[in-house]
Design goal:
Number of helices: 13
Number of strands: 5
Bound molecules: adenosine monophosphate, tryptophan
Strand order of the largest sheet: 1-2-3
CATH architecture of the largest domain: 3-Layer(aba) Sandwich
Strand content: 5-15%
CATH class of the largest domain: Alpha Beta
Largest sheet: 3 strands, parallel
Structural class: mainly alpha
Oligomer: single chain
Shape: globular
């Protein structure tokens, strides 16, 4: 049985990149796979978090996933810290992961910045916890945006290292699923920077909770270039290619089809249509998020039930893994 696992950090500002790169794809997978979707709060605390905001963001991201179409009855949706086996398996993997593998992780280098010695151990070990998330459920497929590809490769390496070390075929090597026409949605202010929750400028991203007016304003102000017409050339015309990709992904079309339709038309006309499309697609999601967030008890109840279902799958697997390693569980 193919099993999906994916995660999203509860760090506020769910944006169009999260939606098109990940969440939108997760929704469709519920028909074909057994799906486990996790709000990765233990990953979030690898950078400083305000406790009150962390709680609020955990609920907000949960509401976002459900509003986008994740069905908590069919799929499992829960927050990571509820299931202690994630942290426990991460420790077991820490003991077989060479430092050299972690030293290659570009996300750590970006997040740690120049003051590497001040970066915390958890930020460095982040990809090991991610491997534990996935492998704890022996998931076979992991739908993510392109920025997570390197972490996924590390998860496969760790699975392979464990299997070889203990001479077992215990873990399947998880396959990344990087899907859709917007695998890497870029900032509206800079076509070479990823759209991100942590970017200070609100104008760089479209949040799932933005109203139609805000979406229209942000798209109208989005950076463009001085060349005429739209382009698929992400290398030389990143802003134009990014806007085309967003349009295509939102409208479930290929970028080629969209580019052909806008041949000979300028940015102004394209932006008007894109803004209308984005506003129409995001409006029902924002409305449903607001409705869900009005009842935190209901959201907490969904997470609690999801956590219990996840733990029931995780605990027997962890017991088996500990047995393979030779850890006594009398
Ligand atoms: P995060 O918010 O970093 O936890 O990311 C959650 C999911 O959204 C992951 O699968 C990411 O790969 C995806 N994602 C985040 N930012 C972008 C982006 N700018 N473009 C495409 N996918 C993204
Ligand atoms: N690191 C991922 C991100 O920032 C989130 C994540 C944590 C994840 N654990 C995971 C994604 C397991 C897929 C599978 O986007």
């Amino acid at each position: 049985m193919n099993r999906i696992f994916s995660g999203v950090q509860p760090t506020g500002n769910l944006h169009l990149g999260n939606y098109l790169g990940a969440i939108k794809n997760w929704v469709g997978m519920q028909n074909d796979y057994e799906c486990i979707y996790c709000i990765v709060d233990l990953h979030a605390i690898t950078v400083a978090q305000d406790p009150v905001e962390l709680l609020a963001n955990t609920r907000e991201v949960t509401a976002g996933l459900i509003a986008a179409g994740i069905d908590p009855e069919r799929s499992i949706i829960f927050n990571q810290s509820q299931v202690a086996s994630h942290a426990e398996l991460a420790w077991l993997f820490n003991c077989i992961t060479p430092l050299g593998w972690l030293n290659r992780m570009t996300q750590f280098k970006e997040k740690a910045g120049k003051k590497r010695d001040n970066a915390v151990l958890g930020l460095y070990a982040y990809p090991v916890l991610m491997a534990a998330d996935i492998l704890l459920y022996r998931a076979t497929h992991v739908p993510v945006g392109e920025d997570q590809k390197q972490h996924l490769e590390l998860s496969r390496d760790i699975a392979g290292a464990f299997n070889r070390l203990y001479d077992q075929e215990y873990f399947p090597l998880p396959e990344p699923l990087i899907l859709g026409e917007a695998k890497r949605v870029m900032s509206l202010r800079d076509g070479r920077a990823k759209m991100s929750k942590s970017e200070a400028s609100e104008n760089s991203r479209i949040n799932l909770t933005d109203d139609a007016e805000t979406i229209q304003r942000k798209i109208r102000r989005a950076k463009t270039d001085s060349e005429p017409g739209m382009s698929l050339d992400a290398e030389n015309r990143p802003e134009a290619a990014n806007l085309l990709g967003i349009y295509a992904a939102l409208n479930d079309e290929s970028v080629e089809v969209v580019a052909a339709r806008f041949t000979g038309k300028g940015f102004a006309e394209f932006k008007l249509e894109l803004a209308d499309l984005a506003a129409a697609k995001l409006k029902p999601i924002a409305a449903e998020m607001r409705r869900l967030m009005a009842s935190t008890d209901h959201i907490d109840d969904i997470l609690k039930k999801g956590g219990a279902r996840a733990a029931a799958m995780a605990e027997p697997n962890l017991a088996e893994i500990k047995k393979i390693i030779g850890l006594l569980d009398p």
